[in-house]
Amino acid sequence: MNKPSIYGLTLDQLTAWLQEHGHTKFRANQVWEWLYRKRVTSFAEMADVNKECTQLLADHFVIETLEEHLKQESSDGTIKFLFRLQDGNLIETVLMSHKFGLSVCVTTQVGCNIGCSFCASGLLAKSRDLSSGEIVGQIMKVQRHLDQTKQGERVSHIVVMGIGEPFDNYDNMANFIRTVKDHKGLAIGPRHITVSTSGLAEKIYEFADSDLQVNLAISLHAPNNELRTRIMKINRAIPIEKLMKAIDYYLEKTNRRITLEYILLKDVNDRREHAVELAELIGDRRDLANVNLIPYNPVDEHSQYQRSEQESVRAFYDTLKKQGISCSVRMEHGADIDAACGQLRSKQIRAAT
Ligand code: SF4
């Protein structure tokens, strides 16, 4: 049987595990530093940790479980990595370069069961959740790539927006966040981490009550139930009213701003009247909400959807602004590679089958 990755343990869990096996908290801190500051790939490299401890760790864990299968680089600096997991499954991770730093978009599941009608990943049903070690492993792979190619540069932001519904893999997603935030390790600031959900209301309450304290984005994509159900079948089970109630709880509990993601699909949800309806839906929440407009990246799998005209994007944006809604248009990354989420993975899987 494959050994699990040690990246799956938070610092508290690693400390408890080592203490149970006769080692000290000090030792756990040393190991943590070797993992996340010096970023070694084998326990034997942990020079100041005694042999007994490194052997114990090597008997129970591995460090890396991801193998690079493919890498696509865009002229704008975006890099798409396709990683192979120990069981042979492929997952996608994206590194993006911005003025404010380097962000990584991570995957949380192999496939996805939410089935958004515009998404290349939604066609490949979920086969399993990723462990937190596999999610942390994506950041470590990308960080090591930076260590080798751009010394001194570090992953500064994380978006949990890759393939999968993070709230459908809640505990592993939460441990992943605890690990990457830890100030003795990667120390990625909580304000630089965003988790995106398709709107699993129950988990929004749990997230609001948790110690995680990172940003939340909601994939809204439509201003009314009829349209949202057409685009995202999850809306049948969790309609907009239920979602907005959970959002209200989150806003009141955390007082943090929330992002509402809105993918613009030509002649489907991109008309001026949709923008007006969206502004009405946001209503009093406008002080704590930002709408992120995302021009659609067409994929072969969903030929029924096209990209909105630029004038429609502009008109939608202007209409929201006029209604006092804060909004932005997402910059496109990696337009010259397989830019849409899950596109590279689904192409590879199709080619292999
Ligand atoms: S958009 Fe996200 S939640 Fe929806 S099917 Fe794709 S991966 Fe799943």
UniProtKB/TrEMBL annotation:
<keyword id="KW-0479">Metal-binding</keyword>
<feature type="binding site">
    <location>
        <begin position="164"/>
        <end position="165"/>
    </location>
    <ligand>
        <name>S-adenosyl-L-methionine</name>
    </ligand>
</feature>
<feature type="active site" description="Proton acceptor">
    <location>
        <position position="92"/>
    </location>
</feature>
<dbReference type="InterPro" id="IPR007197">
    <property type="entry name" value="rSAM"/>
</dbReference>
<feature type="active site" description="S-methylcysteine intermediate">
    <location>
        <position position="341"/>
    </location>
</feature>
<feature type="binding site">
    <location>
        <begin position="219"/>
        <end position="221"/>
    </location>
    <ligand>
        <name>S-adenosyl-L-methionine</name>
    </ligand>
</feature>
<dbReference type="InterPro" id="IPR006638">
    <property type="entry name" value="Elp3/MiaA/NifB-like_rSAM"/>
</dbReference>
<keyword id="KW-0963">Cytoplasm</keyword>
<keyword id="KW-0411">Iron-sulfur</keyword>
<feature type="binding site">
    <location>
        <position position="116"/>
    </location>
    <ligand>
        <name>[4Fe-4S] cluster</name>
    </ligand>
</feature>
<dbReference type="Pfam" id="PF04055">
    <property type="entry name" value="Radical_SAM"/>
</dbReference>
<dbReference type="InterPro" id="IPR058240">
    <property type="entry name" value="rSAM_sf"/>
</dbReference>
<feature type="binding site">
    <location>
        <position position="119"/>
    </location>
    <ligand>
        <name>[4Fe-4S] cluster</name>
    </ligand>
</feature>
<keyword id="KW-0808">Transferase</keyword>
<dbReference type="InterPro" id="IPR048641">
    <property type="entry name" value="RlmN_N"/>
</dbReference>
<dbReference type="InterPro" id="IPR040072">
    <property type="entry name" value="Methyltransferase_A"/>
</dbReference>
<feature type="binding site">
    <location>
        <position position="297"/>
    </location>
    <ligand>
        <name>S-adenosyl-L-methionine</name>
    </ligand>
</feature>
<dbReference type="Pfam" id="PF21016">
    <property type="entry name" value="RlmN_N"/>
</dbReference>
<comment type="function">
    <text>Specifically methylates position 2 of adenine 2503 in 23S rRNA and position 2 of adenine 37 in tRNAs.</text>
</comment>
<keyword id="KW-0408">Iron</keyword>
<dbReference type="InterPro" id="IPR027492">
    <property type="entry name" value="RNA_MTrfase_RlmN"/>
</dbReference>
<dbReference type="GO" id="GO:0008168">
    <property type="term" value="F:methyltransferase activity"/>
</dbReference>
<feature type="binding site">
    <location>
        <position position="196"/>
    </location>
    <ligand>
        <name>S-adenosyl-L-methionine</name>
    </ligand>
</feature>
<feature type="domain" description="Radical SAM core">
    <location>
        <begin position="98"/>
        <end position="330"/>
    </location>
</feature>
<protein>
    <recommendedName>
        <fullName>Probable dual-specificity RNA methyltransferase RlmN</fullName>
        <ecNumber>2.1.1.192</ecNumber>
    </recommendedName>
</protein>
<feature type="binding site">
    <location>
        <position position="112"/>
    </location>
    <ligand>
        <name>[4Fe-4S] cluster</name>
    </ligand>
</feature>
<dbReference type="InterPro" id="IPR013785">
    <property type="entry name" value="Aldolase_TIM"/>
</dbReference>
<comment type="similarity">
    <text>Belongs to the radical SAM superfamily. RlmN family.</text>
</comment>
<keyword id="KW-0819">tRNA processing</keyword>
<dbReference type="GO" id="GO:0032259">
    <property type="term" value="P:methylation"/>
</dbReference>
<dbReference type="InterPro" id="IPR004383">
    <property type="entry name" value="rRNA_lsu_MTrfase_RlmN/Cfr"/>
</dbReference>
<keyword id="KW-0004">4Fe-4S</keyword>
<keyword id="KW-1015">Disulfide bond</keyword>
<keyword id="KW-0698">rRNA processing</keyword>
<keyword id="KW-0949">S-adenosyl-L-methionine</keyword>
<keyword id="KW-0489">Methyltransferase</keyword>
